[in-house]
Amino acid sequence: MDLASLETPVPVVDLDVVEANLKRMQAYCDQHGLALRPHIKTHKIPALAQRQVELGAQGITCQKLGEAEVMVDAGLTDIFISYPLMGEAKAKRLAALAPRAKMRVAIDNPIALATAASAAKQSGAEIGVVIEFDSGAARTGVTSVDAMLELAEAVRATAGLRLDGLMTYPLSAASADFLAVALPQLEARGMAAPVLTGGGTPNAFHAHETAPINELRVGTYIYNDRMMVAAGHAGWADCALHLHVTVISRPTEDRAVIDGGSKSFAADIMPAGVQEGYGYFPDYPEARLERLSEEHGMVDLSACARKPALGERLRVVPNHVCPVSNLHDRIALVRGGEFQGFVEVAARGRTV
Amino acid sequence: MDLASLETPVPVVDLDVVEANLKRMQAYCDQHGLALRPHIKTHKIPALAQRQVELGAQGITCQKLGEAEVMVDAGLTDIFISYPLMGEAKAKRLAALAPRAKMRVAIDNPIALATAASAAKQSGAEIGVVIEFDSGAARTGVTSVDAMLELAEAVRATAGLRLDGLMTYPLSAASADFLAVALPQLEARGMAAPVLTGGGTPNAFHAHETAPINELRVGTYIYNDRMMVAAGHAGWADCALHLHVTVISRPTEDRAVIDGGSKSFAADIMPAGVQEGYGYFPDYPEARLERLSEEHGMVDLSACARKPALGERLRVVPNHVCPVSNLHDRIALVRGGEFQGFVEVAARGRTV
């Protein structure tokens, strides 16, 4: 079977581009003395996580416990869950993983702390904890050094937990400001923060000059996407995942409709002030994927000198590749331009 | 196991509300002499499709061939695929279904016609064809009566195909205008269009006064969502699907973070000029789900007199429920307020 005979829409990943992306990030981290801990939310595929570790990553990052379960089952042994786990059901599942892999979790509140403590007690294995602080995302994370110190003291006072350090996302000037105040205060209280972990692909190659972290969490760099090109992190040739689609309708001279919509591309839009639309057509750069319904993508061809024909197959770079992985049960793999088969997106849909 | 012990995020469907929604739409169609052909894209669950048929639906509508395969495997026998199928791989799959169920497909171009013809030839079973015309969506669909007539003549001239009629989405004043010109011209050429099929939940209860159709395709009405409430089709009590989530962080007085983001809610936004945000909290109507990342939902509580606590479980009505079904492998069912178990979303992810 060759690539052109695969039914569309189908996500196709070029393993040569993946390999180059992985090696570039590992080399950057090696150069600057950063531990690399890739976020598997982008690919959700154990074999790719294993390749990241083979190339030098210290371990992996998962967002949800269900993702970590898939990765531990596949043999990954050093896992950071960068997300507050809350409640006894989660504690029980974390306890089941702790004897099988080195587990670290992020917390920003007392219930998440109690959950990690319960897991440590049930498993008998020590669990590492990092405290998340807000550095501009206005998402999770404590918003003051005092709140961080209070949690750090509580971790120190809790049997089975090990204070590993601090976590920030995104890595920003605010990360540096927080650490400048926080680290001396931790030290003054006799606590250390050996792990200072920061994340985000868009500015990853500036991590060493942004804040004094020693671990980098990045996900999107493995595939890249239209947002990463817009952010200056990657070029189109560094985009490893393309949606292959078919033109299923050409109702007017200037409109093509493709057989992928929000169920294939997700509905993520570009940051305000950047380009509009839902994807980039490398073979028709002037085509604009202007609207999506669930299974239709409406393409404005008015700026195209050459226009795709009815039935033609097109390649599209999505805006944001991580939710695309989450929409497809499997992806097609290519190496050296040749179709290699499908791989299951094993941690797809693990929201719990 | 009771509902409160299910791990979040989890989609929960109230079967009592489903039943009322199904009966209301069936009664409307019965009253106005419309055949009801529900679109299964909203629920993607065979048992719910079967219930729709038991209550009087003539058959079902699927968007993709893969959805139709799931439904035929589950015993559904009258299927309309409201989407152009293109190419030999699709023809072969359609041919495999044709002896097992009454199959009808929509076309708007010659390749889709040839695909249906090939399927009919391979299967030996006649396949019904409706021609889609554009009534304002600027999506698929021929844009002129002449283009429709040309396709209709081609269908008539093709062995194995049966011209069933015309299809429009959304059902609008433009649908009526097109039909007023198209139907006499078909008749003048000795062709009939026994099936006039229109779709869309938001204005479904006005179908009888919008255009002279005789078949209604609606999907969202089974669950309803924030968009259907905004459109005036439903009230909050008619919303059958809620995402149950947990407050996993309370970093500031006015911000809660929930454990569902775009991987649980999808990123569909409300139509311009309506409300902002990504969902509605029935128990905290002033809370605003203002931002989503993949696994986090950021909730602005500044307008709330009473605010949810860390660890509290919340119910959310999503903006658009159809892509929510597509993000979850299974949903929890409730009847009479009691948890009934899970059901697999069997046609989830069937984009091909």
TrEMBL record, chains A, B:
SUPFAM superfamilies attached to this UniProt entry = PLP-binding barrel
Q: What's in the keyword line of the UniProt record?
A: Lyase
According to UniProt, the name of this protein is Alanine racemase
Enumerate the Gene Ontology biological process terms: D-serine catabolic process
Membership in a protein family = Belongs to the DSD1 family.
Residues annotated as signal peptide? none
The D-serine dehydratase-like domain covers 240-335
Which Gene Ontology molecular-function terms are recorded? D-serine ammonia-lyase activity
